Amino acid sequence: MSDDWQIRVDAVWADETLDPADVVRRIDALAAERPEGDAEALFERAGARDSAGLETDAEVLYRRALTVGLDPDRRTRATIQLASTIRNLGTVEEALALLRTEYEREPRGALHDAAAAFYALALVSSGESERAASIALQALAPHLPRYTRSVTGYAREIAENPR
Q1: What are all long-range contacts of 33-41, with beta carbons under 8 Å and residues at least 24 apart?
Q2: Whole-angstrom distance, CA of residue 100 vs CA of residue 43
């Protein structure tokens, strides 16, 4: 993928003057520059539709991008975004499975906290609010200027002793 292409894609995402339909149109135009079935283009098209509230269309494109194969960063992002989308569409169990796998896959990865946040949201959707709070607090704890150890301990306690 050319750096220029990604720069232009990033510029569309950064342009806050565009409405969601314009983002979809512009991302689609950029995706058309890529070969048919290009995973990165599919991923960007999925994200544009997801942001525009077209979750059903986004789901198909995320799945195709993941099947074709993405680099590790985009694979993680696509997995998180797909899981969030299908959770919104009511497929909570699959979303939980995807997010649990992503959350456990790389505990020190750059997107681990993002995976934790969306995993917690899916847990809430499945009725597991205490476990969701535990996951969210464990992700938050390392970022606290103080009380990291205490919050981590309490988060683990919630997970180990649910009501």
Answers
A1: 33/5, 34/1, 34/5, 37/64, 37/68, 38/1, 38/68, 39/64, 39/65, 39/66, 39/68, 39/69, 39/70, 39/74, 40/1, 40/6, 40/65, 40/70, 40/74
A2: 21
Question: Which stretches in the chain have pLDDT values below 50?
Answer: 1
Token pair 């997107």 is found at: 111
Domain boundaries, the chain: 1-70, 92-163
Q: Decide which of 3.40.50, 3.30.1300, 3.40.710, 1.25.40 is the CATH code for 1-70.
A: 1.25.40
- Dist CA 145 CA 104 (whole Å): 25
**CA distance linking residue 126 with residue 104, whole number of Å:** 19
Phi, psi of 54 (to 5 degrees): -100, 60
Report pTM. 0.89
Q: pLDDT of 79-117, one tens digit each?
A: 999 999 999 999 999 999 999 999 998 778 899 999 999
Q: What is the CA radius of gyration of the chain?
A: 18
